[in-house]
Amino acid sequence: MITGRCLCGAAQYRSPGPALFSCVCHCRDCQRASGTGGVPVLGVDKTSFASSGPIRQSITQGGSGQPAIRNFCTQCGSLLFGTPQSAPGFVTIYAGSLDDPTLFEPREALFVGQRPPWARLAMQLVEHAAHPDSG
Ligand SMILES: [Zn+2]
Ligand SMILES: [Zn+2]
To answer: Is the dihedral of CA 41, 61, 133, 56 positive or negative?
Structure first.
């Protein structure tokens, strides 16, 4: 079971897993939304994903042209997971919110063309200039 929560603990989520993909997204939107150099993301099946607590959505135009939806706790503001309309079958869990962050084993880095030099992970990842589906 993959479980996680926000900083204040009011919002939680769970998924039976498994992680279907694991990557770090370095697009500018993820940088601005998180205040970091990239967002570590673990994709799980949406049908078996469950969340509870005071969760709200921030909706912006994503790089795919479809709305990017980021779900956060209204009490503490922690980003928890994404529900991208470009990939409606998936929930993208932000790995820092996991109860056990070591469950996250990143394999790919997306949008490395937008990654600042200080945000490169020490581990070896398959790098994509943008999204792997868009080349
Ligand atoms: Zn919270
Ligand atoms: Zn991104």
So the answer is: positive
For the chain, domains (ranges, CATH) are 2-134 (2.170.150.70)
Residue 122 is encoded by which pair of tokens?
A: 């020490």
Distance between CA 75 and CA 36 in Å, rounded? 21
**pLDDT tens-digit map of 62-79:** 777 788 999 999 999 999
Indicate the pTM of the whole model.
0.93
Ramachandran bin of 65, using left for φ above 0, alpha for ψ from -120 to 50, beta for the remaining angles: left
Instruction: Find the 4 Cα to ligand 1 centroid distance in Å.
Output: 11
Q: How far is the CA of 53 from the centre of ligand 1 (A)?
A: 8
